[in-house]
Amino acid sequence: MVGRNAFRHPSGRVVRPVLNTATAKVYLVDLATAQRLEAGVAEGDDARLAQSGLLVEVDHDEAAEVIEASRVAARDRRTRDFVVMPSAYCNMGCGYCGQTHERVTVSRDHRAALAERVARAARGGRYDTLNVRWFGGEPLMGYAVLLDLSRRFTAAADEAGVGYAAKIVTNGSLLDARKLRALHRDARISSVEVTLDGPAEVHDASRPLKSGAGSFHKIIGVIGAALRDPELDGLHFTVRTNIGVHNAALAEPFAAELAAAGLAHDRVACYPAPVHSWGNDVSDVAVPRADLAAAEMAWFLAYQRHGLRFRLLPAAPRRVVCAATSRHSEVVGADGRVYSCTEQSLVPGHRDEDLGHVGSLAADELRPPGAFDDWYDTLDAGATACRGCAILPVCGGACPKLWREGKPPCPSLRDNVRDRLDLYALTAGYTPVG
Amino acid sequence: MICFSSGFRGAPMLIDSWLLQHAAELAEQAGTQLSAAAGVLHHEAHVFMEEITQATTTLHSAFTETVNAGCAEN
Ligand code: SF4
Ligand code: SF4
User: Fold this and answer.
1) Reported ipTM
2) Closest residue of A to B33, CA-based?
3) For residue A367, is it within any domain?
4) Residue B7 neighbours by CB under 8 Å, 6+ apart
5) What percent of chain A has pLDDT over 90?
6) Interface of A with B in 27-56 (CB under 8 A)
7) pLDDT reported for residue B36
8) Is residue A404 within 8 angstroms of chain B, CB to CB?
9) Residue A309 lies in a domain
10) What does pLDDT average to over chain A?
11) Which ligand 2 atom lies nearest to the CA of residue B71?
């Protein structure tokens, strides 16, 4: 993929940025080479381009190689992933959410069975690391359960001598300094992802607490304070913004508010994600596909202008597209039912796609086969558009579930990768040549 | 015989001259926030190619290594 604009290199050359999607590496090349890469004209001295992977043999099936590498990565994972929902309830009522929430008691037996399952995975000798992601509903509605399970999981990992990593995806409204310290110190959570949907009034309207109150200022205040807390200096934050028609044009005031709260910080990374359907109707709020790529660029520009940290281009090829495609990953709902995909447990129409109950599955065994374990065969067979797609190595096909529902989930990267490359060159300090 | 890896030509320009509009302002900030892992691979011949893949040290978390498409898994 070649950027659209030319830049001045310090050596005086005029260059354009190029992304090798197979390796996720970015290069600057001279204009003639850029043109040849775009036009597909090879010349005698292209050995170096071939070496970097920008050129490949014409009979080389790159897609097959990428898909095989993914298949192997999903099969041979040395990390065991557990996505755990300590609560099926959420204290927010976001209009676009596709989950239904209810209060469920995470029973003592279910906790014991899950802890045993995790301990067996740790002890089995198959894995180097246990990776736990706390999800919901709102996981902090099950704060006590989360701490209790974390204590058992970390003890099992320590006893077995394997690594332990944990992340939480939360709406952020229940966070405070005391909980953050416990989550970081006791539950060994190193990354907190919160969703903020725009400047305060827009966030508070689009993600209202069930009580009707807002949460924006509280959340950014807690994060800002956490960044100054020496006990939390290993904790990272991710700020996701669900982009819909309500906030697509509000990147600028949003980025300004975050920066003013001290979130332009090396331990805070931001990203925009389009509001998407979980099976529910989001047509009133979703940004039309044709406008998404441009909207996303506007968000990146605003992040950049206000010093927020973000990633323009993927840092590595994406081998395992998501948890649902590897049997070394499983999702455990608050009711103890086990799934392969995170958008099944609380989603009407998918709740019965569970693969069994944590209490009745054999604790030593991987989860039973799920709907998307054959994802790499599906890709290879050309059942989606991915096999012929230039960004397959860094995209991985995005979402097997949406493909299967007949809704191509192509990320906007597909449409704005050339613009992202230009912004990438710009932010790396190169001057555009008009 | 060789052909071009990932020969996708891309969509038409999304935002007219956005880059030039923002260039001066953004370039000023550059370098203080992002470090470029620059290594000139080959200066000598007529193909000029330099890797500028940014160092990942200041950015964290699984998402930043991948492309987001919707669900919390990505
Ligand atoms: S999901 Fe879309 S963008 Fe991603 S690899 Fe498949 S076709 Fe390409
Ligand atoms: S299949 Fe789609 S919705 Fe399910 S975990 Fe994977 S990316 Fe998420």
Assistant:
1) 0.81
2) A307
3) no
4) A40, A390
5) 79
6) 27-30, 32-33, 37-38, 40, 42, 45-46, 48-50, 52-56
7) 42
8) no
9) yes
10) 93
11) 8
